[in-house]
Design a protein that fits this description.
It is built from 16 helices and no strands. It is mainly alpha-helical.
Length: 465
């Protein structure tokens, strides 16, 4: 067997810039769009729920289609990189438009505008992010380097969250009208403009440095939605990690969508949003440096399980903390953040499931498999934003008003208790995954032999021709 194909050092490091860019555009949307809709535009909680659920229902169709399109693409730049480079500018523009509403939330036109901009923004995010996620699986044949590549992504993600969560609230307030105590619509929009300008070149750097070294064997098949879904459903390991990611992302991204309510109303300070939302990202960066070592020693699944259990414990500490006990709140936040390191393992396990399916069927589904990650991210964010606001409303939440004790309890349950339960549930779901890292290495060894045989056959056929 020949030498493993590896990613370059610059490609490995620069890969993390893609998730850094994603935080500037999509996590900013996820963190602040819900409160922008309810407290600035004036959309009713039910309208917000309906918009976000319609978007996610469409994503269930759109995301696998985008994955299938990307993995069938053939160009001199590869299958995935062209979408990252050419889609990035459109994603930046759409992220700005979500924070623009010329009609207001009390009109039908305002609701339609909000729905269209949010849904289209989600589609363009899919256009860029699914190829970006799939790129990691084809940059190298080495499992340890895959872990390192996805760790770089996790560092980029957390660094982006440090920036987005640390400066967005203050920056939005600075861009708002003079004397404002909380951000206004112009403030939110201008932050989106700044982040969009920064994000585009970062995506382009990833497209230029991330060489695709793992290529599929065989002819390009025509697109069949039925066949695409069948390839996903019949991959048992992909279904397991998809379940884990759905719970993990609903807990993490869903919580991001409603954390601002907890800080503003429970802790009583708009300006503390930066601190509370930045601590987990800083902790995640610190923890990420240890992930490759522990993954190599204990296995990806076990590291993922332990990290999510610890995150759940951190959130339970925050849930139990009195709102005026900042030491306890910060302690729980630090525990939650330090173990915010599970995403590289999830992504590497997606790559393992792709390899497993290729060995089993001969079909390589990088794009559609990574569509499950993108879909989990968006579904988690939408569930947190949509159902989160509905749960809080059921407890009596009223926008821009002093909240009752019951309403504050509902916010705390939504932001801390429910995500803690979901993280622990995701850890339990990991027990279904029984492919060891040694098994995954053996699968890749067999695939490398099959690829070598396929290339030999191609060379013989070309000589005979």
């Amino acid at each position: 067997m020949g030498k493993k194909k590896m990613a370059s050092t610059i490609g490995t490091v620069c890969y993390g810039l893609g998730d850094l860019a994603s935080q500037f555009v999509w996590t900013y949307v996820g963190s602040y769009l819900t409160i922008y809709y309810t407290d600035i535009v004036g959309l009713a909680p039910l309208a917000v729920t309906v918009i976000m659920m319609i978007a996610r229902i469409w994503d269930a169709v759109n995301d696998p289609m985008m994955g299938a399109l990307a993995e069938r693409t053939r160009s001199k730049f590869g299958r995935f990189r062209p979408y990252i480079a050419f889609g990035a500018p459109f994603l930046a523009v759409l992220s700005v438009l979500t924070f623009v509403n010329p009609f207001g939330g009390h009109t039908t036109a305002g609701v339609i505008w909000a729905a269209l901009t949010y849904i289209v923004a989600g589609m363009v995010y899919t256009l860029v992010n699914i190829p970006y996620g799939a790129l990691a699986g084809v940059m190298t044949e080495d499992t340890n380097q895959r872990n390192i590549i996805n760790t770089c992504r996790n560092i980029g993600m957390n660094l982006g969250m440090v920036i987005v969560n640390g400066v967005s609230a203050g920056l939005a307030l600075k861009f708002s009208h003079a004397g404002a105590q909380v951000a206004d619509g112009h403030g939110y929009m201008m932050v989106a403009v700044v982040y969009g300008i920064v994000a585009v070149p970062l995506f382009i750097i990833v497209a230029l440095t991330g060489k695709e070294v793992v290529q599929p064997i065989g002819e390009v098949k025509g697109f069949s939605f039925k066949e695409t879904i069948a390839n996903l459903v019949n991959n048992k390991y992909l279904m397991i990690i998809t379940l884990v990611m759905a719970l993990q992302m609903t807990a993490f991204m869903g919580r991001i969508a409603v954390t601002a309510y907890y800080v503003i109303y429970c802790l009583g300070s708009f300006t503390m949003i930066g601190l509370i939302m930045t601590i987990p990202s800083i902790g995640g960066i610190i923890g990420s440096f240890f992930v490759p070592f522990f993954a190599k020693r204990f296995g990806k699944r076990n590291v993922l399980m332990f990290s999510m259990i610890a995150q759940g414990i951190g959130l339970l500490v925050m849930y139990a903390a009195p709102f005026d006990n900042m030491n306890m709140v910060i302690a729980g936040d630090c525990i939650f953040g330090l173990f915010n390191v599970g995403f590289p393992m999830s992504l590497s396990m997606v790559a393992d499931s792709v390899d497993y399916m290729e060995l089993k069927t001969g079909v390589r589904t990088d794009g559609t498999a990574y569509a499950t990650y993108g879909l989990s991210t968006k579904v988690g964010n939408a569930i947190g934003g949509a159902f989160g606001i509905m749960i809080m409303s059921a407890f009596g939440y009223v926008a821009n008003a002093e909240q009752t004790v019951e309403a504050l309890k509902g916010i705390n349950i939504t932001v801390n208790l429910i995500p803690a339960i979901l993280f622990i549930g995701a850890a339990v779901a990991c027990l279904l995954w029984n492919m060891t890292d040694a098994d995954a290495d053996e699968i890749r060894r067999k695939l490398a032999e099959r690829h070598a045989e396929g290339n030999t056959h191609v060379m013989v056929e070309e000589k005979m021709a």
